[in-house]
Amino acid sequence: MSRRRRAGLSGVNNFRKLLRRLPDDVGADVRTEIKESAELIEYDAKVLVHKDSGDLAAAISHKLGRDGLSAQIGFSSKWKRLWRAAGWRAFFEEFGTVRQRAHPFLFPAWERNRVGITKRIAASINRTLGRLSNYRGGG
Prior knowledge:
Structural class: mainly alpha
Strand content: 5-15%
Organism: Thalassospira lohafexi
Shape: elongated
Number of helices: 6
Protein name: HK97 gp10 family phage protein
Number of domains: 1
Helix content: 40-55%
Order of helices and strands: HHHEEHHH
Largest sheet: 2 strands, antiparallel
Distance between the termini: 45 Å
Strand order of the largest sheet: 1-2
């Protein structure tokens, strides 16, 4: 499942570079919003997934980036235990097969939350930039 969806914010990479150079407490608000947003999408994906044995819903997970400023929600072969449990079936469930119709759950979970998450993260970034304009480094 290599398709990636990104929030509709511009200048994110420059902002991430800036936050990496500053103390962790400066970007804590943004990191918290990203973590909560990932958990929200994960929850909705678990609600929307077609449940047979429940293994697929249990295997849905999120993983935060090293800097805490990005998140991946879904299944990955890198998350071995979850992948072996049911993650490999996720593609067939999401997109269907010749004989089984698709039951999408990851993309609808993203779409259901996209607008709200984008607004929350943008507001968090604006608050952080406001604090940065008044920030005096310890040097």
